[in-house]
Amino acid sequence: xxxxxxxxxxxxxxxxxxxxxxxxxxxxxxxxxxxxxxxxxxxxxxxxxxxxxxxxxxxxxxxxxxxxxxxxxxxxxxxxxxxxxxxxxxxxxxxxxxxxxxxxxxxxxxxxxxxxxxxxxxxxxxxxxxxxxxxxxxxxxxxxxxxxxxxxxxxxxxxxxxxxxxxxxxxxxxxxxxxxxxxxxxxxxxxxxxxxxxxxxxxxxxxxxxxxxxxxxxxxxxxxxxxxxxxxxxxxxxxxxxxxx
Length: 245
What we know:
alpha/beta, Rossmann fold, 2 domains, six-stranded mixed β-sheet, 22% strand, globular
């Protein structure tokens, strides 16, 4: 039987990334199923923009229903971004995988010295995407983007909820080193946005040169182990082509 043991790697880089500039794609689900909390979501998002965006950061705003529409190009202009987020218009359908794919594709164009972050606010429904789960997952990994997803669940029990979509997003978020949030009420959005902001400013960069060296574009898995009673969240995989982090 083939061994699944992973080779230990020599750590070449370990440093805080508190000052690294951010490129963020904020994706807001504007499908009809989200109408109930849409006003609160956009107001909370506007406050988050004012809190997270610093002079060197850039944020782009997208809405997704049956299609994905960019409402604001990547910029650090906070008033412009706040105005754009309040122009989200409800639509039919939910192109969830397209949102992950296109948001990741937009972030992939950012310079490599910027941290890339994809933030979704959604009920996790999926009805109209052209992209499938695997296409969306690969796009997020190739963009080296952290996926943070806030699941708005107006139905508390599993009946009527989009549990398949929730599981799919959790799988992608876990692989990128991001996180999932399940607020009990939209009123908790402010505290969740605050937590995301604090996490983005308190991360570390860990890097190594893989041995044996993989071929260009190979899919690689990562396992990080730490001593002591600590819980770490990190990117679980990447596509080779440079320094992995």
